[in-house]
Structures are given as C-alpha cells and as structure tokens.
Amino acid sequence: MVAKPLSVGIHGASGRMGTRLIQLIQDDPSFTLGAAIDRPGHPGLGSDVGPTAGLAPLGVPLEADLTRAVDVVIDFSTPAASLAIAEVCASKGIPLAVCTTGFEPEQKAALTKHADRIAVLISPNTSRAVNLLMRLVGEAARALGDSADIEVVERHHHFKKDAPSGTALRLAEIAARAIGSESIIHGRSGQTGERPRGEIGVHALRTGDNPGEHTVVFGLMGECLELSHRALNRDGFARGALDVAKFLAGKPPRLYSMEDLLG
After folding, report:
1. Beta carbons within 10 angstroms of residue 98's beta carbon
2. Where are the CATH 3.40.50.720 domain residues in the chain?
3. CA torsion sign, 78 to 154 to 145 to 139?
4. Candidate CATH numbers 3.30.70.100, 3.40.1190.10, 3.40.50.720, 3.30.300.30; the one for domain 6-126+235-262
5. Which of 88, 91, 152, 214 has minimal CB crowding within 10 Å?
6. Secondary structure (3-state) at 91
7. Contact between 90 and 117 (Cβ < 8 Å)
8. What is the pLDDT along the chain (263 residues), one digit of tens a residue?
9. What is the CATH number of domain 128-230?
C-alpha cells in the first residue's frame, strides 16, 4: 500500500526558504503542501502560493493563521513569529520544526516549553553536512584542547537580519564546551592585547547573495587546521528541513535535535 503523503505547513511561506520548500514539496510525492502561512498584513494573503513560487496554482492560499489540518509545521520566520506559531501548534498537537535564528535566551526558553505538549526540533541549520561539520568541530576541539586558537568566520547575504548567524554561534558553543571555555567574543577592535588562551572569536561577513559559508579555524604554532562548509544554494537547508519534518511526524512530545535525526 502506498503511504499517504506527509502534509506540511510552511510558516514564513513567502520568504526565500519558504518559497524553495514549496517548490521542493511539489517534486517529492512523499510530501504535500497542506498550509502556507505568513505575517498578518502581507500583501499576498489570500492568493494561491503556486504562481508566487513559479509553479502552477496549487489550491493553497497564503494565510495569516494556521486554519488547515497538517501533519507537521516547518518554521522559517522571525523569533517573535516562531513563538506565536509554536503556541498554535502546541494547542493543536502539531509537531514543529523551528529553523528560525536570532532568538534571545528568554525566547529560546519560551519556545522549548512547548516540547511538553508536542514534538519540537530547534536547529539554526538543518543541512546534514553542516551538522556533520558541528560534530567534527567538537572532535577537533577536544583533540587539540586550548592549545589551538579557535576562530569562527561566517558569510551570508546582505539581507540577513541577525549576526552572527545561529550556526556560527552553535559552532562556537560546541568548541567552547569541548575545551572547557566560556570566553566567546564577537569581533575585535582597538588595543585588545595578546589573545587570551581559550578565547573563541566569532566574525560575521555580509556580502551580496551568499547563501552561507562557515569556517572554523584551529590555529597552532607552525600549522593550521580549517573545517569549512559552503552552501552553493539553499537546497541543503530546505531538504534538511523536509527530513526534519518527516522525522518529527508522529513523534511523542519532546525536544529533539539534529543529533537525534542523524543518529
């Protein structure tokens, strides 16, 4: 018997990632677009999202609220909007994949509370390759310890609203935890003095339409190790988000991570 396609709701459906998700869903028979949601007051509300994504009409209008039954929701929006859709999903018992970045600590804490009622996965980056990079960075940091000077450099398009990226922050946190450090700084200027042992620097570049690059530098005396990931387009993130949606569907309430998905 052929399995029923997974009905996916896209929150932030008119954005770059939302549009690409809509396109990829139409190419994959294991998914169907169940709902397309965006901010109240969006000029496209009520119109079919198919033509907007360069497709034929899909019979799914852009809406400001989640009114349709779906199996899972993928969120690519803003921190405040993520909190709002999380409340809706929790009230309806719908699993939620949060792919938005830029959360303040209190926002992240409010978001994770919904994992008591629904399956929630929060990840600043759903690319399988980026999550492998995170694993490798942890291994390298543990092996080298604080004998290496660790720096994280990220590049993104000039439209990105938060800096550093959530992925860069996560990479820094992983490295810091591995070497037992709490010293993460963002950029440098002025008379900073000699670089302290165990300090991890994070640097954000904003250039053109770059979809995302992350490099972690381990500088030693006489040699250097660099671990990098470069996105050629947004498909790695979008396909990873669909993998997350498939993983979350039917899962019991809990806070999940990409480590759970990757094994």
Report:
1. 29
2. 6-126+235-262
3. positive
4. 3.40.50.720
5. 91
6. helix
7. yes
8. 557 999 999 999 999 999 999 999 999 999 999 999 999 999 999 999 999 999 999 999 999 999 999 999 999 999 999 999 999 999 999 999 999 988 999 999 999 999 999 999 999 889 999 999 999 999 999 999 999 999 999 999 999 988 999 899 999 999 999 999 999 999 999 999 999 999 999 999 999 999 999 999 999 999 999 999 999 988 999 999 999 999 999 999 999 999 899 87
9. 3.30.360.10
Q: Which two tokens stand for residue 215?
A: 């490099």
Residues spanned by CATH 3.30.360.10 within the chain? 128-230
Q: Write down the pTM of the prediction.
A: 0.84
| DSSP codes, 9-44 | EEETTTSHHHHHHHHHHHT-TTEEEEEEE--TT-TT
- CB 154 within 8 Å of CB 211: no
Closest CA to 224 of 158, 104, 100, 140: 140
Long-range CB pairs of 50-59 (<8 Å, 24+ gap) are 50/22, 52/14, 52/19, 53/19, 53/22, 53/23, 54/23, 55/22, 55/23, 55/26, 58/22, 58/26, 58/33
Token pair in block for residue 21: 């998700």
Give the β-pairing of 254-256 and 223-230: unpaired
